[in-house]
Structures are given as C-alpha cells and as structure tokens.
Amino acid sequence: MAIRNLRIEGDAILRKKSKEINNIDERLLILLDDMLETMYANDGIGLAAVQVGVLKRAVVIDLGEGPMKLLNPVIVMQEGEQIFTEGCLSVPGKNGEVLRPLKVKVSYKDIDGNEQILEAENLMAVCLCHEIDHLNGVLFIDNIIEDDISE
Ligand code: NI
C-alpha cells in the first residue's frame, strides 16, 4: 500500500465527473487500499478516488467501525434533513454547514462485484452524500449554508 498525493481545491480534476467502474482488477484493488491508507494518514473518514487523481466511481469510508469500499455508489432513497458541519481533505482548513438528508439508501457494488444496498443515517448518511458528490465534481463548499468562523 502507498499514500498517494491528495488533490486540493483549485485542481481542475476535482470538478470532473468520475467514470463508472465495470472491471474489478488488481489495479483497482490497489487503488482502494491506497485510498484507505491515504485517508488514515490524513485523519479522514471518507475519500473518493478523484481526490487522489483517479476519475473512477470508487469511495472508501471508515467511521471507526472498519473500512468500507464502495464502487459505483448511487443514492436510491433519501429521507429527512440534517445540518452537519463538514470538512474535506481536498479543502484543507475550511469547515461549513451543509444541509443533507437524515437517512439514505445507497446501492453500490462491492469488490467481489456483488450489488449491495446500504441503509445509513446521521454521520454515515452525511459521509455517503459527501463522497458521492465528489464523484460528480461537487465539493461541500458548493453547498455551505453558513461558514465556520474558524477558517
Ligand atoms: Ni471530501
């Protein structure tokens, strides 16, 4: 495994739409492991492949309950609202409040190629929405409803 360079706001790649993954190969599995290592090294809880410069629809998340690897994640249901103060490894030093659904249902493919459904709420729902936004070239700063003064 290796720590990869994080792409930072201002880098045009962060605004691009990532591509669907159709082929789960060794290269992809290494990418996912490297994404996790990069996320842990930077004290993050979620990371999208585009943040290490790869335009593939891959996301890793670890909220302290073990690593998750999601391919082609899509929100298929959302419910309720919550406001959460978010940050992002690609937008260092900035936090801000974003309105998100309280609960989401996400479909994705696991690393064995099986279709999965994940139901999540609270922080996990925020994290899933934030990472899926990355796959569509969206950053949390696009949706801030109130800036944190600690910037
Ligand atoms: Ni982010």
Any idea how many domains?
1
Tell me the helix content: 10-25%
The CATH topology is what?
A: Peptide Deformylase
Shape: globular
Q: What structural class do the secondary elements suggest? A: alpha+beta
CATH architecture: Alpha-Beta Complex
Largest sheet strand order: 1-2-3-6-7
What is the β-strand count? 8
CATH class annotation:
Alpha Beta
Q: What is the H/E order?
A: HEEEEEEEHE
What proportion of the residues form beta strands (DSSP E)?
A: 25-35%
In DSSP terms, counting alpha (H) and pi (I) runs of 4 or more, how many helices?
2
**Fourth CATH level, the homologous superfamily:** Peptide deformylase
Query: What number is the mean pLDDT?
Result: 96
Alpha-carbon distance between the two ends: 33 Å
Bound molecules: nickel (II) ion
Rg, Cα atoms, Å: 14 Å
Structure description:
The protein has a five-stranded antiparallel β-sheet with strand order 1-2-3-6-7. It has a three-stranded antiparallel β-sheet with strand order 4-5-8. The model has no long low-confidence stretch (mean pLDDT 96). It has one domain (12-150): Peptide Deformylase, CATH 3.90.45. By secondary structure, the protein is α+β, with helices and mostly antiparallel strands. The protein is globular, with a radius of gyration of 14 Å. It is built from two helices and eight strands. The protein binds nickel (II) ion. Nickel (II) ion (NI) binds at residues 88, 90, 130, 134. Nickel (II) ion is lined by residues 88, 90, 130, 134.
